[in-house]
Design a protein that fits this description.
677 residues, alpha/beta, OB fold (Dihydrolipoamide Acetyltransferase, E2P), Rossmann fold, 7-stranded mixed sheet, 7-stranded parallel sheet, 22 helices, 18% strand, binds adenosine-5'-diphosphate, binds magnesium ion, isomerase, hydrolase, ATP-binding
Length: 677
């Protein structure tokens, strides 16, 4: 690939430092792009500066001293042909005192501010020069770097790569029509000419930036679509549409499917009838009714003599699925098996037998489902609820329980903005349930400062005495699980003491699964009116009579977490409220999050706001997802490029496989095959 650019010819310590930045070859150096730029191509006269300018000034030191009061500071004065500039250092080394001795000729770079004694610069960059030393000819790039690797050396290595590495195009020229070439773009970004538009460069909106963002998006789409195609080339059981079981279940339900549920089911049903494995994500806001769609999909497999499995991330959620599935499927004469880490040996052995013999048509469970001992007779469909809670590897293990490859349905209650799902889920087909079942009353959200806790307690008591039920969610304490538990237990004791007339329960992540289930079951039966909980209730819990939720320290929680928690109420016909208790003072970020959750109850809108506030990298574990991360492209700014890349990827994969290979090699290098399988 690269002619003379042999990375191993660089000094060993430099190689080690570059590796820390993830750079392992000359291409990596080329694609290590500047964070920002500084303009050292001109020298400005002191007379011409304006407040706030970033400028370079050259002159001679005419005064230099260390003052000790009120605190230690190094002050020097630099004289040019037009005036004087004060240089101020609050931290400095002895070497800097020497560098700033009277009589030295220096070029200083920094922001000028008007001080009491005229213009000054605090902590400028300083460079010793001789009279007539030429200024740099390009804007100076500033790179992300690591301890032990100076900007100057990094620039040197990148220059080396620009001069020696191959900068050829990977994809056919037609791909880029309106954008500059690869080599030209890299030069424009690493060595921008003095007349370049500094603002556009910093904003990453120049054609050169666009070109590289597009390259990167193409790499991402190509790699994900290639995985999609690879999985599609596997064989799967073609499951003909159901004639008996689906109509029978639909007829037994007390409700009709919503339009959105019906559309999702049609898409799934069509996929299941194919000879290759379905790879579909079912997205729908909390409470949109994904579970029944999953049950109906399972029936299509069962009717053709195959088994289906549903895996959920927590025992509480899995158990709830079990009850629903049993109530729907048992009347149809179908056996539902249960597998969890906490069940006793006898129950487990029985379940394993029923799964292996094929007697169990549907298997519901937790992580226990993909353990080694679990042998399915004929697994035709694997359903994963709250799929983002599982790792890539775990989902893979479940799929491997089928022979041939089972169809795969993933579900997520975390709505994802469209751009992100095109990027994050580029290797899946997506069905969206964008409509809630009718008859839900909207949840009223209130923000209440913690100082007004007593009023909130009163409100909880009133609601419970009038026959509804309430959740009290304890604060998230990320630093310490022990502390979180302690807080939950204290809150529980306190609320029990405050409400002698109510039955109060406690559920937290450290309880044994059986204890947890007992508490949840008691709450479902309305034997407990108030449930004190840690964030374990975040996913899936469905108790329609619960109409009030209090969330303590709501300012510590993320948007999607708040949205999921709030979705535990508003599931019945009663008017529901969610009270977000917050502690002042609020950080700006927390204030914005609370504003979003207060103003919106639409999961997609909240997800978009979350993305805008946090940026895609921080968004719901995208980093752990196995999806190649974007370093240059920005899904908000570069949305049009993403659409283009998405459209083009299929054509390129079909018509130019070797070009695609070269492109992925450049962008993902050795990681090209590490993305999810
Ligand atoms: P989620 O999508 O969050 O998993 P669930 O599947 O738990 O939502 O459904 C939430 C509630 O709505 C359940 O009690 C379910 O039985 C009910 N439900 C589902 N679909 C409909 C519908 N079409 N009409 C009325 N209620 C429905
Ligand atoms: Mg659910």
């Amino acid at each position: 690939m690269s002619r003379a650019a042999d990375f191993s010819s660089l000094p060993k310590p430099a190689q080690a430092n570059l590796r820390k930045l993830g750079i392992i070859d000359a291409q990596g150096l080329l694609l290590h792009l500047p964070l920002r730029y500084v303009d050292e191509t001109h020298i400005t006269l002191v007379r011409d500066v304006r407040q706030g300018d970033q400028v370079q000034i050259e002159g001679e030191i005419v005064h230099s001293e260390v003052q000790y009061r009120p605190r230690k500071v190094l002050i020097a004065r630099l004289q040019d042909d037009s005036g004087q500039l004060t240089l101020r250092f609050l931290h400095f080394y002895p070497s800097q005192i020497a560098q700033l001795k009277v009589g030295r000729r220096l070029r200083v770079f920094g922001e000028v501010r008007g001080g009491f004694f005229g213009w000054e610069m605090v902590h400028p960059q300083v460079r010793a020069v001789r009279e007539g030393t030429p200024v740099t000819e390009t804007l100076t790039p500033v790179y992300p770097t690591t301890a032990g690797l100076s900007q100057a050396s990094l620039r040197k290595y990148i220059d080396w790569a620009l001069d020696n590495a191959a900068l050829e195009e990977t994809l056919p020229a037609a791909v880029y029509t309106d954008l500059p070439g690869y080599a030209e773009s890299l030069r424009a970004l690493h060595r921008p000419p003095p007349d370049a538009d500094l603002y556009a460069l910093q904003e990453r909106s120049t054609p050169a930036w666009q070109r590289l963002a597009y390259e990167e998006l193409l790499a991402q789409q190509l790699s994900m679509r290639r995985h999609y195609a690879k999985r599609r080339s596997l064989g799967a059981p073609a499951l003909a549409p159901s004639k008996l079981l689906i109509p029978a279940l639909l007829a037994s339900l007390p409700f009709a499917l919503t339009g959105a549920q019906g559309r999702a089911l049609t898409e799934i049903s069509r996929d299941l009838a194919q000879r290759y494995p379905m790879q579909r994500l079912l997205q729908g806001d909390v409470g949109s009714g994904k579970t029944i769609v999953a049950a109906l999909a399972a029936l299509q497999a069962v009717e053709q003599g195959w088994q289906a499995a549903i895996m959920a991330p927590t025992e509480i959620l899995a158990e709830q699925h079990l009850h629903k599935m049993q109530s729907w499927l048992q009347p149809l004469g179908l056996e539902v098996a249960w597998l969890s880490g906490s069940q006793n040996k006898k129950a487990r052995t029985q379940a394993l037998e029923a799964i292996a013999s094929g007697a169990a048509k549907l298997v519901v469970g937790t992580h226990a489902l993909f353990q080694e001992q679990v042998q399915f007779a004929r697994l035709g469909l694997a359903i994963v609820d709250e799929q983002h809670r599982f790792g890539v590897q775990q989902r893979l293990l479940l799929r491997q329980k089928g022979q041939p490859e089972p169809h795969q349905l993933m579900m997520s209650a975390t709505p994802i903005p469209r751009t992100l799902s095109m990027s994050y889920y580029a290797d899946l087909d997506v069905s969206v349930i964008d409509e809630l079942p009718p008859g839900r009353t909207p949840i009223v959200t209130r923000l209440v400062a913690d100082a007004r806790r007593d009023e909130v307690l009163q409100r909880v008591r009133d609601a419970c005495l009038q026959g509804s039920q309430a959740y009290w969610v304890c604060p998230l304490i990320e630093e310490s699980e022990v502390l979180q538990l302690k807080t939950a237990e204290e809150t529980y004791a306190l609320l029990q003491a405050s409400f002698p007339e109510l039955h109060v329960g406690l559920v937290h992540g450290r309880m044994k699964p059986a204890e947890k289930q007992a508490v949840m079951a008691a709450f479902s039966r309305n034997e407990l009116q108030l449930l004190v909980a840690t964030t374990v209730i975040e996913v899936g819990v469905d108790v329609p009579n619960a109409s009030l939720m209090v969330i303590e320290h709501a300012e510590r929680m993320g948007l999607s977490q708040l949205h999921q928690l709030r979705g535990r109420v508003g599931r019945g016909a009663a008017r529901s409220s969610c009270i977000l208790l917050y502690q002042q003072p609020l950080s700006e970020m927390a204030r914005q999050r609370l504003k979003v959750i207060y103003e919106s109850s639409d999961g997609f809108e909240i997800a978009q706001a979350d993305l805008n506030l946090r940026g895609p990298g921080e968004y719901m574990g995208v980093r752990q997802s196995g999806v190649p991360m974007l370093k240059i492209a920005d899904l908000t700014r570069d949305e049009p490029l993403l659409h283009r890349a998405r459209q083009l990827a299929e054509d390129l994969l079909r018509d130019h496989p070797s070009a695609v290979e070269a492109h992925l090699q450049r962008w993902l290098g050795h990681a090209a095959e590490l993305v999810k399988v």
